[in-house]
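Case study: Acylphosphatase.
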Amino acid sequence: MSSQIKKSKTTTKKLVKSAPKSVPNAAADDQIFCCQFEVFGHVQGVFFRKHTQKKANELGITGWCMNTTRGTVQGMLEGSLDQMTDMKYWLQHKGSPRSVIEKAVFSENEALPINNFKMFSIRR
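Here is what the predicted structure looks like once written out:
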């Protein structure tokens, strides 16, 4: 019985060693995620949506943003984890030149099979 265990351990090691290392990383890079966001502070009347659209296009993010009646800007982001991380940082800490961001709230990242949006748009 111990010889069977040794054989299966050896076989497992060989399979692990022969598996290509780039496959898991390639799958993670291709994975699309989405999240909702809302930005609070002085974010209306300061070209926040226009600058958000510009930054999203630079990063390759798709989705949308819009003003709310509460004086915030909310929207949806779609992209890779790296793209989403960069965009979230921008929304929390930078924004448009004249904006004053108090806080930004994000939903959890949700994996998507495909993009729901083809571009990043401003909704009115």
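For the exam, be able to explain this: Residues 1-26 have pLDDT under 50 and may be disordered.
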